[in-house]
Amino acid sequence: MEESRKKFVGFIDKALATASTMHRDELLFSYKGIPYPRAFYSPETFKALESFEARSDDVILAAYPKSGTNWLSQILTDLIAISQKKTPGSESSVNAEEPEEFPYLEAGDAEKFERMTKLPSPRFMVTNLRPENLPQSIFKNNAKILLLIRNPKDVATSYYHFSNGVTTVPSYETWDDFFTDFMTKKTAWGCYLEYLSEWNKYADKENIMTITYEEIKENPALSVKNIATFFGIALTEEQLQLVVERSSFQSMKKNSDKTHGSFGKVLFRKGGVSDWKNLFSEDQNVKMDKAFEEHIAGTTLGKKLKYDLYCKA
Ligand code: A3P
Question: What is the crossing angle of helices 237-246 and 220-230, to 10°?
């Protein structure tokens, strides 16, 4: 395990180091109207991504940052290893744990898409992009997408703490300042509620499965089972338990030094539901409730988020 994620951790460490030399105002750049962290992304890579050719057996995880992307990446990596008759965590699965390419599709150099044409199936990739900014071949070729969503108040809360823990995005002196930027499309990856409403246009498609952070927390075994079924991966009861155990917050936090390097300390923070109650003021609650109502309430994804249960005091 220790050796297996060297390249992955190296990629993140390099981005963190690059960003630490940048001025706050230089950290983000805008592409098609959305801000992105310069240390991970470039306009050249975004441009090259347009002609990326997806395969029908690609395994794609789509999520807005802070929704639990790394959690689901762990689950999917283990499920892929199982589909290849490997035992997650054992010596034989080392190759599955160390991705050939940094799995965030839009991050890295523009030549990566050419290299990816040579990778064997199934290729695993993660994307934080909105669907309209993804290569059209993903939808045309019916690649399967697991869409992970989380209640917006906890996303904002997690994001605020993250901003103050890493060098790659601007930090904030106060939660109030962060909240204002988060609600006015100034934070990296753009407006989360717009992200949800764009993805909602795809939510009923057969090759897209939507899952919420909260439902995985509520019943991890059932969630892993459903994800495996969606991707056509058969699991024994023992394998299911192994995947659930290895992806628990405690296990991932304990292993984070090896899997994510110094980044792990920031990433695996609380891993719970409703931490927003420690930050949101009455006025901020009203603003988020109103924005949710305007953008997404009543839609497929809006209902799935169970906003009244998870976001009302
Ligand atoms: P918190 O900051 O609320 O703790 P992402 O991976 O998309 O950046 O999301 C990070 C969030 O997912 C963090 O939320 C982190 O703690 C949480 N997380 C990571 N691994 C988890 C796990 N195994 N179980 C539950 N939550 C997890």
Answer: 110
Cα–Cα distance between 107 and 10 in angstroms, integer? 14
Nearest-CA residue for ligand 1 atom 2 is: 158
Phi, psi of 36 (to 5 degrees): -135, 150
- Phi and psi at 44, nearest 5°, equal -65, -45
The pTM of the full predicted model, rounded to 2 decimals, is 0.96
Answer for the pair 41, 107: CB distance below 8 angstroms, yes or no. Answer: yes
253 Cβ below 6 A of ligand 1? no
Contact (Cβ atoms closer than 8 angstroms) between residue 16 and residue 166: yes
Task: Determine the structural domain holding residue 222 and report its residue range.
Answer: 2-310
| Listed residue (264, 192, 186) closest to 24, CA to CA | 186
Q: Are the beta carbons of 143 and 299 closer than 8 angstroms?
A: no
Mutation to probe ligand 1, out of 75, 104, 149, 158 (largest number of atoms < 8 A from CB): 158
* Ligand 1 atom with the shortest distance to the CA of 162: 2
Q: Tens of pLDDT along 123-181? A: 999 999 999 999 999 999 999 999 999 999 999 999 999 999 999 999 999 999 999 99
Number of Cβ within 10 Å of residue 250's Cβ equals 10
What SS3 state is found at 240? helix
| CATH number where 293 lies | 3.40.50.300
Question: Ligand 1 pocket check: which of 218, 244, 249, 273 to mutate, most ligand atoms within 8 Å of Cβ?
Answer: 249
Q: Is the CB of 251 under 6 A from ligand 1?
A: no
pLDDT value, residue 1: 40
> How many domains, the chain?
1
Determine the distance separating the centroid of ligand 1 and the alpha carbon of 65, expressed in angstroms. Answer: 10
Instruction: Choose the residue to mutate in 12, 64, 70, 251 for probing ligand 1, maximizing ligand atoms within 8 Å of C-beta.
Output: 70
